[in-house]
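User: Teach me something about this protein's shape.
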Amino acid sequence: MAVLAVSGTLLALPSLAAPVAFADGAPPTDLRVDANRDGQVDVTGTTDNAGENGWTVGRGALMLPNIDDDTKRCPTKGSGGKPLSDAKLAACNDASDTKVNGSADAADLARIRSVPMRSLPAGAQGTVKVTAGADKARVFLKRADTWVPVTSKTRLTRAELRAGVEFGVEARDVIRDTAKWDGTARIRLTVKSSAGTSSDTVTLRVAPVLTHHHLQNAQQMLVTKIPGTDDYAKLNRDFREGLDKAARAAGITKPTINFTKYQDIWAQDFVEPGYVSMTGADGRRHVMRVLLRSAQMDREAGRELFEKLRGPNVGAVQVTGARPSEEWTLNSMGNVETIPPYAHGDRSFPAGRIIMGHRPDSGSKPAKVMRTFLKSQGLQDPLFLDTSWLHVGHVDEFVQFLPADTPRGWKLAVADPEAGLKLLRDAKAAGHGSKRMFSLPVGPTETINEALASKTLVSDNNLATRRIEANLAILKRETGVTDAEVVRVPALFTQGREQRGESGDEKLRLPRLSRLGAGAELPDVARDHGQQRQLDRAVPGSAAPSANGAVGSPAAPAPSVMTSAYVPGAVNGIVLSRTHYLAPRQWGPVIGGKDIFTEAVTAAYTAAGMKVSYIDDWETYHMGMGEIHCGTNTLRDASAAWWTR
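Assistant: First, the predicted structure itself:
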């Protein structure tokens, strides 16, 4: 048995023999697949011979999970217009029937061909069988330009075998757990004639679902549209208009997709855009987008992936089975980011590597089913970083990856609370301590002196610095990134406290928004749209309750301090292109006519080769414990071969 190392995951495939003849004189049967991934199945030469019975990252036949809806046939409502259940909504796709739904659906099929058997005697017949992965793969036979499903009753004629037969294969699902299915299908062609019996078997593996990284150019933006004429709807409209303007300036030409049905403003969190790809029969990369719904089945916004976006070359996947004891917020997709491709030591990640946040302080992790799903793809083995110190707990709050003109091709950007405190201390030392901490036209009145006089603010940021540096050490160890490749972006964090909601008895944990202009009551944006609405409400020293209120293990107390951005988090922005970056407007102290945080953030990104623009998200996202990255998403160019770097 051959064992193949794939980015830390082992795929074990049996060593299969060459075409087998079971009787002397039987013509050899020879099946071929696109083992070299050039889009052509070579039946006259030997370019596809090596690897036809196995699979590595760089070689071996691929098939796509045919989970898109090329003809938009899948229903989004039940009888009488009633909503479908989540299960029924997700069940329909092009692989859920036994038809090839037009030419677009045919393009989703991986090709297999048989080498023409010119010397077959009269009466010869062939049969096809899926010997492994039969419940996960479907084979079609091309007859007279029509694709027909292969069944146990299908018989290939002597004329077809003499001419050579073309098959198409679809995977009926993605890999979800390699312990249940490793993604491989084995197809055997057996030919019987008066001269004897011969057969041949080939192997295909379903293309892995991969998440995007920032070396892939953004092609389209996603954001939630809030209807109506109230104040927040107007703020949302202004934000979306600003987002469209920034996208156009960065060269993004496709119109922004607006989520409209469920009013969940955190478009980063209920979906992680991914993709699968193989080389098509025309020699070009054939890409299918796969929208991965967060493992938060009570988050209705994820349904819109199926209701609105599923269609030609766009599929959606929901991963079910998250446990009630698993922390809800860690299952948001803002807690899934991707390191761009790299190799370090004996490990290589040609498609990049996922990072996720967990809470070592309390033992809380993202849902096991999602961790299993991501690891089972075999190429982006998730790396976990400590987000115990963050109230929302997402990795996008403090780390990101920037395209760079360097041998590695990217740099690592991190929030730098030490630099944020230094900006305030330097301003105070220069005699500007009485300046307002925030330059909003209406809002907080706290001064630089008052902010620095707060032992809590200083200690919060000392804590954040320690935790960020510990995470940075992990990233350096795993990737080989050096200090010269780290972009430090000034930031400030502040710890949370409980405040009362509109009902008077509803307590939600928020950043210290009294500093940000809020009183004893929750501001509307935080009450209605804030990320804290589903957060763990544990208090220091108590057992950590789950999202549904169940109490977890008392052996895993909540950390004493959990923070979120004080000044809008600049690293929680959007990489629009290799040269354009969109950051949340800083609203920092204005000294000499200039916002000192804006100046410092701009300098950090400019030094990294990025042109920075800003958009106001104070009321739309920042007051709800998020930033512009949390409220948006991107579809990126996945046309490059993920199996090479």
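Now, about its shape. Confidence is low (pLDDT under 50) at residues 1-17, 498-506, 536-558. DSSP finds eleven helices and 35 strands in the chain. If you'd like, I can walk through any region in more detail.
User: That's plenty for now, thanks!
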